[in-house]
Amino acid sequence: MDKLYTKRIIFVGGKGGVGKTTVASATALQAAAQGKRTLLVSTDPAHSLADAFARPIGDNTTRVAENLDALEIDPDHEVTAHIERVMASMKRFTRPDMYPEIERQMRLTQQSPGAQEAALLERIAGLIDQTAADYDLLIFDTAPTGHTLRLLTLPEAMAAWTQGMLRQTARSQQLAGVLDHLSPKAGKDISNPMADPAEHETADMDDRTAAITNSLLQRQRLFQRVRRTLTDADQTAMLFVLTPEKLPILETQRAIKALQAEQLPVAGLVINRNLPATADGAFLAQRRQQEVRYRDEINSTFAGLAKLYVPLFATDLEGIEGLRAMAAELRWDQSQR
């Protein structure tokens, strides 16, 4: 993990309560101190970045340190904005007498399961695709299995949803063939949600149909570009935080297996809150013995992955100074396999 800051994107994930946000924030501070223009993004609805930095952050980029901006994505705002964009787009491509039906469908969609995830992931895709000129490094404080894996299947879901809406228009039959190509279920031009969308001839289409087709293709290409970035080990790293305990080990094992199945590069593990050798007393001695067993399990279960062990601090880590204390323990060049 000594080359972690040569990446463009770092996802920091892990089970709740293991110190994921603290590690993500300290990592961002460390990168910024090395001159990297860094954007730290929280995609967790229960945001903790503001707590970690002991200052308000919110849904707009906020400067929290030199070379470091932070952002907490508001999922409710993202859903509303996403629905409004889709509704405006659909109204441009349909007759006015269809507007009430579109608005009804949008109200139902806003309350549907997965709407929040779809909106959040579209924002993530936009950040990845559009911020390269402004930032050297993006760090996402999120659970990769919960968000990134959904990102991989979002184009299929959105293509299917769009197809259902477009079938209500007078041009539905003409668009059906185009939309079938956009859906991996067709099994013709693409075999998975992230394959390159086929180029479709729009010369024989009227302006409205061509505009719809181009809009859908642009959307598909966005996620294809993001997919290429996420699976490129030279650009992206998935970093997991866990503690030397049973449940975090099991959850991390499942998460890594799922990510590797999607060819997403896992850079390594941060094993947080290890009792220092100086901790005394019978209770802590017993606890330390248990940690030794779990560290052995971590070393065997995740053999081949880089591992960095971080001690348990005597007090809570608060604000910039607390995060800098954590950053001082993130000695990536001393990680072990």
TrEMBL record:
It holds the Pfam family ArsA_ATPase. It comes from the Bacteria. Its EC number is 7.3.2.7. It is an enzyme of class 7 (translocase). GO terms for molecular function: ATP binding; ATP hydrolysis activity; ATPase-coupled arsenite transmembrane transporter activity. It catalyses: arsenite(in) + ATP + H2O = arsenite(out) + ADP + phosphate + H(+). Residues 8-330 form the ArsA/GET3 Anion-transporting ATPase-like domain. Belongs to the arsA ATPase family. NCBIfam families: GET3_arsA_TRC40. This is arsenite-transporting ATPase. It comes from Pseudidiomarina salinarum. The lineage of its organism: Bacteria, Pseudomonadati, Pseudomonadota, Gammaproteobacteria, Alteromonadales.
